[in-house]
């Protein structure tokens, strides 16, 4: 039977996550955790309720899931708040590991749309220093941060420069980062998952064939750019529209769940 536990990782009303846990397996340890990061083009009107059905489904299928809320543009997020929250929210798992018997040897992120951007961006956290970004890890209780070991991006906005050029969702990228790249070139570069390539962990760029909200180029250009790295990203096409990926009854979502299980093995 799935259990649910809510925890805060900061003082803001949006700095929280909900841990969904199945009955522990033989041996008592949950083998890995899935961090669910919702989308909504980083805007405050969309929240963790989008990720809740996915986290519950994952737990119903034997996987520990951490449904992460974070500050978005319009409620204290944007640059750098949204990015700080994603890393701090993932790092909170280090505090929860012992009381909930979580094995953090495998921590996989599942991110939809803008959440896919944040998941893949977080996977490059070890390269942020190389990019000139200050230390974004909000370390708690002496832990040195939790690293992702794989990502399943669901129609993720993985090429931020191209998304800004296309003015996706009425300029959502500039809204997130406080202005256009002509005004904040550093922010736009450091917030772009493309800038952290190459990664050394597997990334599945899953994209819906009939997606009209996030163009396929957001995934294909990222996968192409990753091809010369040690662990190239893999493009996975699935049927349906943008929201089929977060419909837990759809073929598109079931493919994502299979990929998560593969990454946790």
UniProtKB/TrEMBL annotation:
**The keyword Thylakoid is annotated on this UniProt entry:** no
The organism's superkingdom is given as: Bacteria
Q: Which UniProt keywords apply?
A: Hydrolase
Q: Which Pfam families does this entry report, sorted A to Z?
A: BD-FAE
Instruction: Give the BD-FAE-like domain ranges.
Output: 28-221
PANTHER family hit by this protein: AB HYDROLASE SUPERFAMILY PROTEIN C4A8.06C, KYNURENINE FORMAMIDASE
Protein name in UniProt:
BD-FAE-like domain-containing protein
Q: Which organism is it from?
A: Arthrobacter liuii
